Amino acid sequence: MPSGISYLSMKILRLACLGTVLTAVGIAQQPAAMRPPAVPLVAHDPYFSIWSMADHLNDEGTKHWTGKPNTLTAAIRVDGKTWQVMGRDNGVPPLPQTGVEVLPTSTIYTFAGAGITLQLTFLTPALPDDLDVLSRPVTYIDWTVISTDVTPHQVQLYLDANPDLTVNTADQQVSWGRFMLDGQPVLRIGSREQPVLAKRGDDLRIDWGYLYLLADKADGVTSAAVSHQVARAAFTSGGKLPDSDDLTEHIVLPARKLPATVLAFSVDMGQVGGNPVSRSLLLAYDDQYSIEYFGRREQPWWRRNGAEVNDLLRSARKDHDSLLVRSLKFDAELMADMRAAGGEKYAHLAVLAYRQTLAAHKLVADSDGTAMFFPKENFSNGCIATVDVIYPSSPFTMLFSPALLKAQLQPVMEYAAMSRWKWPFAPHDLGTYPQANGQVYGGGELTETNQMPVEESGNMLIMVAALAKIQGNAAFAEKYWPQLTKWAEYLKDKGLDPENQLSTDDFAGHLAHNANLSIKAILALGAYGLLADMTGHKTEAALYRTTAQDFAQKWVSLAVEGDHYRLAFDQQNTWSQKYNLVWDKLLGLNLFSPEIVKKEIAFYETKQNKYGLPLDNRKDYTKLDWLVWTATLADNSADFEKLVAPAYQWANETPTRVPLTDWYDTVTGKQQGFQARSVVGGLFIKMLADPEVWKKYSSR
C-alpha cells in the first residue's frame, strides 16, 4: 500500500469524516439524512452516467440518466450463500440495505445481514482543483466487509457490467476483449461499429469507445467475459467465475434470445472477522474522442499530452489510496461549509447537485491545449454550450474552478468572434451535443427568429465580469472586448424595457416588458462598466455605470405594485421571482436599493406552496436553481432557510425518480420536464454570498 496507509485506517477515516458511528461491531452507519430522487453511482459526463433510481440499490436495475438501462449487477457470497447487492436477480435474496448517503465525491451504501455488514462505496474523485484527476473517466467501486456476530465468515464479491453501457440501442452489436496490465487482467467491451461522434441529439447513449473493468490487485480475483447467467451460476455455486471466456460475439437485443456477454469479476476476500476487509474494482470508459468543435475532433482532457488508456488505468489504480484521502477531506470540508452557509437542509439538497453538474459536461483539450468545458442541455433539447444553461450553472465553476468557468465561456466567445456570427447580441448555443459546429436553436445562426438577445448578452457580460472579479484581472475580457462592447451597446438600447422575446425560462413562452429580464440587462450594463474600469476604458466605465444607475431607478417606477414588483411592466396583479437581482450583491454593483429585496422576500413568503415558491403567478411550477438564487437574496438565515426548506422536502418526497429535475410542480412535487441538467450547479450560489468562502475555494 502506498505511503503506509492501510485500508483499515482509511476506512476508519472515512467513517469519521462522514459522521458515522463506529460500533462494537465495526462500521454501522447512521441513517441517511434524505432520500434522493436518484442516486449517482458513476457520474462523469453525459454518456458515462449511471444512476440508481430506487430507494434501495437492489430494488431494480441501474440506469443511464435518461432512464434507459445501463446495467451494473453486484452480489456478495457469505459462507456459500449468495445475496443481491446491486440490481435484481430472480431467486437471489437481496441483502438488506441499511443506509445510503450522497457526498460530493462518493455515494456510500450500507447493507447488513448474514452475519456481516457491507459498505459499498462509489468513489469518483471529482476534485475541482485538479483537472487531470477530475477528467479521468474512472469510478472506484470499494467494498468493505466486517463480521457483526463475532464469527469469521468466508466472503466473495461479484460485479458484472452489461454491454448496454456501450451502445445507444439494444440492437447494436458489441465486441469484447481481454488484456493484461502489469500482470493483471483487464476486460474491455464496446460497440463493433464504433461510429465516433456520428450521432447528435438528446436522448442518446454513447456507442463508441470502450468500457473497462479491472481489480485493485490480483489476489483472489477471477474474471470472465461470459453471459450473465453463466457468470452468476458459477459464482453462486463456487464463489469463482468460469475459467473460459465466451469466444463468440453477441448482440445485446434480448428479443434475439442470445445471452449478452458481460464483463464479470469476482474477488475472494477470504475469512472476514472483526477487522474490516476492503477491496476495489475500477470501472472506466475511454471515449477516445469526445466533442466535435467546428470540424475538429477533440480528445478528452486526460489524453492531451499523449496518454493512452493503459496510462489512465495504471495511474488510477496506483492513485486510489491518495485520492480516497483527498476526497474524504474535500467532502468533509465542503459539507461543513454548506451547513454553515445555508443549514442542514440546504447542504443535503446542494450535495445532490455536485456530481450531477459535472456529469452534464465534458472537459476536452483543443488543438492548442486550451481547456474547453462543454455542457449538454440534458432532456431539454440536447444543445451543447447553451449560454442560458452555463449561466445558471456558473456558480459551481465560479466557486470551485475559475479555470472551468473560463473553459465554459471561451468556446462561446470564439464563436461570437467568427465572421459567421453576424448578430449584435450573444449566441444561444454552439450546436447539438456532441457536435459544436454552430447554433441550432431558434432557426440557427442565420435568423433572429426565437433568439434570446437580451438574455444571452446579459448572461455573458455578468459571467465574464464574475470571472474578472475572481481572478483579479480582466485579461479574458480584454481579449474579446469588441464582442463584449457590442453586447453592452445592444443592452443599452434594448435592455431596460425588453421587447416580446424569450428568456432562459423559454418553456413559459415569449414575454414583453419582462421585469426580471430587465434586471439582468441593467446588472449586465453595470458589469460591463466594471470590466471597462478594470481594462482601462475609463470613459466607458463612467458612462455605463451611470446608465445602469439611471435604468435601475427607472425600473422601480416601471415594476412597482404595492408590496411587490410585477412580472411584466404592463401587467397588473402579477409577480415573479427576481432571481437575477442576486448579482447586484455578488458583484458588488449596488445598483438597486436593498429595500427592493426586503419587499420581495417578504412577499415571496406569502406565496409558497408545499414544495416551494412558484416561478411566477402564472403557474404552480418552479425552477430549483432560481428558487435557491431567490433565497440567496435574503439578508438573514431564517428567510433563506424558510424558502429552501420546501425544496428539500420536495427532493425527499417527489414521486418522479430521476436525477434532480430543475423544473417541478410545487403542489404535486411531480417533474414538469428536464432532468440531470447542469443548471443545478446554481444551488452553490449561496456559497458565493460569503466572500471568504468564495475566495477559499476559487483560489485553489
Task: Provide a descriptive summary of the structure in words.
With 700 residues, the chain is of the alpha+beta class. It has 2 domains: 328 residues, Beta-galactosidase, Chain A, domain 5; 329 residues, Glycosyltransferase. The chain has 18 helices and 28 strands. It has an 8-stranded antiparallel beta sheet. Strand 6 and strand 7 form a beta hairpin. The longest helix has 34 residues. The radius of gyration is 26 Å and the shape is globular. 57% of the residues are buried. The N terminus is likely disordered.
Shape: globular
Q: CATH first level of the largest domain: which class?
A: Mainly Alpha
CATH fold topology of the largest domain: Glycosyltransferase
Summed up, the helix count is: 18
Distance between the termini: 28 Å
Tally of distinct domains: 2
What's the CATH architecture name of the largest domain?
Alpha/alpha barrel
Instruction: Strand order, main sheet: write it out.
Output: 6-7-8-9-16-13-12-11
List the helices and strands and how they pair.
Elements: H1 7-17, E1 39-43, E2 49-52, E3 63-64, E4 72-78, E5 81-86, E6 97-102, E7 106-113, E8 116-123, H2 131-134, E9 138-147, E10 153-161, E11 174-181, E12 184-191, E13 210-215, E14 221-227, H3 228-238, E15 261-272, E16 277-286, E17 291-293, E18 296-300, H4 309-342, H5 344-359, E19 361-365, E20 371-375, E21 383-384, H6 387-400, H7 402-416, E22 431-432, E23 435-436, H8 453-471, H9 475-479, H10 481-494, H11 515-534, H12 538-559, E24 560-561, E25 564-565, H13 582-586, H14 594-604, E26 621-623, H15 624-632, H16 637-653, E27 663-665, E28 671-673, H17 685-688, H18 691-698
Parallel strand pairs: 17-23
Antiparallel strand pairs: 1-2, 2-3, 4-5, 4-10, 6-7, 7-8, 8-9, 9-16, 10-15, 11-12, 12-13, 13-16, 14-15, 17-18, 18-19, 19-20, 21-22, 24-25, 26-27, 27-28
